[in-house]
């Protein structure tokens, strides 16, 4: 029995407090709206609590351990390097706690009302927020749905026991001796590499012909080289069929090249995609229009088929990226406030925190050709960059894709250390309509990794300084 039901009115109700929802709430409050935000879990959503941030903390710890263990290459002898995984987890959780506390403080500073519970649409202007046995009604002028997504669960590999989603994989109490990763996308490769660096024997089973599908082969070959160096077994063109668990291990059966094989490990990590969280919102009550893939259909202003309701993030078409959700959240809030905002995904970056890091923005060379551009490219290797070599990090390259006629920068692909940071300059360049010449004329500090962007632009213009001229 639900008791104590009251009705409260707000200008904007945001459902979901992840990187899309809390950003939308703050921007709406900044623009003068009374705002309430509802979530059944912690602020920060999956990204901050069970995804982006804790995974990067674990990756960073693993990288530190690897660096210390191999410091002899630089003449530094380090003995007795050990991993106290309980302390690693404690440190990781401390990072998450600090950031969730920061988000909570920002919501409070912007006078945003926080509501705990699950939202259920009653009609186009009202939801019930249910928390255990209590329920309250909230009437709104506008609503922004930002409920995010969850890991896809395979029928043959139900989560539980020794079958893990990324959430459980981030919270293991000890470093496993062995692990099978089903799915060689960004989550599988990031977490697989992290555990491999900490000493786990990792086997990756990927259905396509390459890990990190969607990235060009000239990029993924650097990642594959590192996977091999870490002792990881990568099986491509393979399909996982099922698993048998015991008290001590789990055996996965898979087929590859028409042959059935088995591999036994301590755990199986399933990373085959994410599913939108739309199940229990009562969208049928407001006749919300969905796409054929079960996502909420939106226009360029994040408006749904219901005039006063907006949707952002993983529940709408496009890549499931935290920064995409945050961007859309600001657009939705600004439209509600009467501004002429609209989404433009031309310069949205994609980053994989693999080793080496991978980042892209705009069009790759193949896409640019397919769209009819007369393409010119410039490429500069980490191996020719002074700062990269002084970091003992000479693997990778920066590649710029431009339009030969106008000189405009169309895109970039980077593989190597700090690719996630270097890509921002090119994103800005695309957003501003910058040319290859503009980049080449911009003075970059020396010695830095950022110089490679300038060097790649000079290469595209046929005027490379630190590369021999092409024959």
What does this protein structure show overall?
The chain is of the alpha/beta class and 471 residues long. It has three domains: 7-150 and 275-336, FAD/NAD(P)-binding domain (3-Layer(bba) Sandwich), CATH 3.50.50; 163-272, FAD/NAD(P)-binding domain (3-Layer(bba) Sandwich); 350-460, FAD/NAD-linked reductase, C-terminal dimerisation domain (Enolase-like, domain 1, 2-Layer Sandwich). 31% of the residues lie in helices and 26% in strands. The chain is built from 13 helices and 22 strands. The strands form five sheets. Strands 1, 2, 3, 4, 5, 6 and 17 form a seven-stranded mixed β-sheet that branches. A hairpin with a 2-residue loop joins strand 4 (118-123) and strand 5 (126-131). Helix 1 packs parallel to helix 8 (322-336) and helix 3 runs parallel beside helix 6. The longest helix is centred in the N-terminal third of the chain and has 25 residues, at 85-109. The radius of gyration is 24 Å and the shape is globular.
CATH architecture of the largest domain: 3-Layer(bba) Sandwich
Shape: globular
Number of helices: 13
What is the averaged pLDDT score? 95
Q: Compute the gyration radius: what is it?
A: 24 Å
CATH superfamily of the largest domain: FAD/NAD(P)-binding domain
Could you list the spans in which at least 5 consecutive residues all have pLDDT below 50? none
CATH class wording of the largest domain? Alpha Beta
- What structural category characterises the helix and strand content? alpha/beta
Provide the number of structural domains: 3
Largest sheet properties:
7 strands, mixed
Enter the CATH topology name of the largest domain: FAD/NAD(P)-binding domain
The share of residues in extended strands comes to 25-35%
DSSP summary, beta strand count: 22
Q: For the terminal residues, how far apart are their CA atoms?
A: 80 Å
Measured as a percent range, the helix fraction is 25-40%
């Amino acid at each position: 029995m639900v008791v104590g039901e009251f009705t409260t009115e707000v200008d904007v109700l945001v459902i979901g407090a992840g990187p899309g929802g809390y950003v939308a709430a703050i921007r709406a409050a900044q623009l003068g709206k009374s705002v309430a935000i509802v979530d059944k879990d912690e602020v920060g959503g999956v990204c901050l609590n069970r995804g982006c941030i804790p995974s990067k903390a674990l990756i960073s710890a693993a990288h530190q351990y690897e660096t210390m263990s191999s410091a002899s290459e630089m003449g530094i002898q380090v003995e007795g390097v050990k991993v106290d995984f309980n302390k690693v987890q404690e440190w990781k959780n401390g990072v998450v706690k600090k950031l969730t506390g920061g988000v909570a403080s920002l919501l409070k500073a912007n006078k945003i009302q926080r509501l705990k519970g699950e939202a259920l649409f009653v009609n186009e202007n009202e939801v019930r927020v249910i928390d255990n046995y209590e329920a309250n009604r909230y009437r709104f002028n506008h609503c922004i749905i930002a409920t995010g997504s969850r890991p896809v669960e395979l029928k043959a590999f139900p989560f539980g026991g020794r079958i893990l989603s990324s959430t459980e994989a981030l919270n293991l109490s000890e470093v496993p001796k062995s692990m099978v990763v089903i799915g060689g996308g960004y989550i599988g490769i990031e977490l697989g590499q992290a555990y491999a660096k900490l000493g786990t024997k990792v086997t990756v089973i990927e259905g396509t012909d390459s890990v990190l599908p969607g990235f060009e082969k000239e990029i993924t070959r650097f990642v594959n080289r590192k996977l091999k160096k870490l002792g990881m077994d990568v099986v491509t063109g393979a399909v996982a069929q099922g698993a048998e668990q015991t008290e001590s291990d789990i055996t996965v059966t898979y087929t590859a090249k028409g042959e059935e094989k088995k591999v036994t490990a301590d755990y199986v990590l399933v990373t085959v995609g994410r599913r939108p969280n739309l199940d229990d919102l009562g969208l049928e009550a407001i006749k919300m229009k969905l796409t054929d893939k079960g996502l909420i259909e939106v226009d360029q202003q994040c408006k749904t088929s219901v005039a006063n309701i907006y949707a952002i993030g993983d529940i709408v078409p496009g890549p499931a990226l935290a920064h995409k959700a945050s961007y859309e959240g600001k657009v939705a809030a600004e439209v509600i406030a009467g501004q002429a905002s609209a989404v433009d995904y031309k310069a949205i970056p994609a980053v994989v925190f693999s080793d080496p890091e991978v980042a892209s923005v705009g069009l790759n060379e193949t896409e640019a050709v397919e769209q009819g551009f007369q393409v010119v490219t410039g490429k500069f290797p980490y191996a020719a960059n002074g700062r990269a070599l002084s970091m003992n990090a000479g693997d990778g390259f920066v590649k710029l894709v431009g339009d030969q006629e106008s000189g405009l920068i169309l895109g970039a692909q980077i593989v190597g250390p700090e690719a996630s940071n270097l890509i921002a300059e090119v994103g800005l360049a695309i957003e501003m309509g910058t040319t290859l010449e503009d980049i080449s004329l911009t003075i970059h500090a020396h010695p830095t990794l950022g110089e490679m962007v300038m060097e790649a632009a000079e290469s595209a213009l046929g005027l490379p300084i630190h590369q021999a001229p092409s024959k």
